[in-house]
Amino acid sequence: MPVTDISELRKRRQAKQTKNLIIKVFIILLICGAALIAALTKDMWMPYFKGILTNIPENLSSEETAEMSEGKFPLKVEGGSGFQLMDMDGSLALLDESRFHVYSTDGKVMNERQHTYANPILCVSGSKALIYDEGGRDFSLESKYKNIYSKTADDVIYLAKLSESDYAAVVTRSDKYLAMLKIYDPMGNPIFTYFSYDSRIINVTFNENSSGCIVTVLSAEGGQLISRMKRFDFNDTEPMWESDGVATLALDVEFTDDGIIMIGDTVSAGFTRDGELVSQYTYSDPITDYNTSGKISAVITENSDIRKTELISFIGADCSSPVVISLDEEAKKVYTDNSQVYILNDSGIKIFSSDGILNGEILLEDDFDDFCKCSKYIFLLGYDSVNRISFSG
């Protein structure tokens, strides 16, 4: 069943993590039970086992696995869910249910601050982090070393974004209108406001110099959800242009070198810089994760009934002929940079080139729920810790 709300995708990811945790606990209980039975009956089977052990050769080979860092790693975090891990200009930003942390790549604490947000969301761009309380009214801008500002919105926040130049977009809703967008400069001063009375704002994408943005809105037409983009300059409240609608729930919109790409829950679409729709690709199965670097965009789709998982990747804004790869395992997360796509699964991380060639695989002994590529390292988020492996690819 396709996603019908942006928050629904988060709920589905959370449900999958909870399911995996229950399975792990069940397996541990089985192992403990088997170990107890083995201990009680060791006099019966130990003599046979010793005979077998003496015949095993010493030079058994095994697949090489990634070597975990030592020293300050693993970083210990309170066990649970809802952690968010992101690269912050060569440092590691970590947000949990009660604290915001910034670590150097060596694990040294650079910034640590407690928050009281009920549903904290982390957004990182460049060397700053925007933290907001989804469903609340508070938000703050953080650097690697200190808090820049903390503010309270007039109404309930359901979306916020941060530009490379530290401009913040905060979207709220109230009884008077479906959505209001307010843009703040790097010091927290409001510089632009847009009210949407007939459609909900579901995404904000800043242009390269933060002088304007694309506002993506959602409406219902003929029984279908329609996503449409509006381009604004912050010197004018009237849009520069408005795109054609696409029958999907837009999850992300990004500028590319050759246009604009919209990643939807059922369709990905490519546009010119003037908002003209030029290409589309419809997924055959529900989307479970996505990521885009602007140069490469990647979508993971899954059909659990037939155990089918696919990686779909797009170069730039061209959605007419993506690279589609069948994966032999469920994919937990996908990450893209300017040249490669990274897939996290139960075995480890697979690395694909932009044209779909498998460039390498990192085998991991433990299970991880999320990961982030930062500098020459990959950071891995487990249930109650963050670990680090070196990566030069």
Describe the structure.
The protein is mainly β. Helix content is 12%, strand content 49%. The protein contains 2 helices and 32 strands. The strands form 8 sheets. It has a 4-stranded antiparallel beta sheet, with no helix packed on it. A hairpin with a 2-residue loop joins strand 19 (259-264) and strand 20. The longest helix is centred in the N-terminal third of the chain and has 35 residues, at 6-40. The chain is globular. The two termini are 37 Å apart. Residues 44-64 have low confidence and may be disordered.
List keywords for this structure.
four-stranded antiparallel β-sheet; 2 helices; 32 strands; 49% strand
Topology at a glance:
Layout: H1 6-40, H2 42-53, E1 75-76, E2 84-88, E3 91-95, E4 99-103, E5 109-114, E6 120-125, E7 128-133, E8 138-142, E9 147-152, E10 156-162, E11 168-173, E12 179-184, E13 190-196, E14 200-206, E15 212-221, E16 224-233, E17 241-242, E18 250-256, E19 259-264, E20 267-271, E21 277-282, E22 287-292, E23 296-303, E24 308-315, E25 318-327, E26 333-336, E27 340-344, E28 348-353, E29 358-363, E30 370-374, E31 377-381, E32 385-390
